[in-house]
Design a protein that fits this description.
30% strand, alpha+beta, single chain, 181 residues, four-stranded antiparallel β-sheet
Length: 181
């Protein structure tokens, strides 16, 4: 994901398996052709730990969106689907929000959703969702691990992000994973 500022980052991956939801992200932040931070935390807990959020894109924009999403969660009794839909409506129609350059994955124990600035609220078909520069690599690795192993959701996220970090120059292996369920 490249932005006007030249910042490229990250890889966020969420996987659901056997009642467990795991979401993780790498820590690399790149400006132009230089890595400027290796241990950024791009996965957060909301709603007293019952909702996890990962973001890719501009950090300042992501934090503004996180605040708004947390408010929507509160307004809708921590129902991530309802909060995501309301957030997407606001994101698409608000002039200031439309300029924000970030994408989020939100998850609770039952559901994983992608939220994007054009009003996107997407639920994956296969309980795998990823965003960021290394998302294609992480998704491919997670699908293979989900199909061919008995690993937990947390272990799949960790291993798939490690694989993405071996391939994508904008993804490192300083990985944070949070789980639900």
């Amino acid at each position: 994901m490249e932005h006007a500022t030249g910042i490229r980052s990250t890889t966020i991956l969420a996987v659901r398996r056997n009642g467990q939801t795991a979401i993780g992200g790498d820590g690399q932040v790149t400006l132009g052709n230089m890595m400027i931070k290796s241990a950024a935390r791009k996965v957060r807990s909301l709603a007293d730990g019952t909702v996890k959020v990962g973001f890719a894109g501009s950090a300042a924009d992501a934090f503004a969106l996180l605040e708004r999403f947390e408010k929507k969660l509160s307004e809708h009794n921590n129902n991530i689907t309802r909060a995501a839909i309301e957030m997407a409506k606001e994101w698409r129609t608000d002039r200031a929000l439309r300029r924000l350059e970030s994408t989020m994955i939100v998850a609770d124990k039952d559901k994983v959703l992608l939220l994007g600035g054009s009003g996107d609220v997407i639920e994956p078909d296969d309980d795998i969702m990823s965003i960021g520069s290394g998302s294609g690599y992480a998704t491919a690795a997670a699908r293979a691990l989900l199909r061919k192993t008995d690993l937990s959701a947390e272990d799949i996220v960790r291993e798939a992000l490690n694989i993405a970090g071996e391939i994508c120059i904008y993804t490192n292996q300083d990985i944070v994973v949070e789980t639900l369920g």
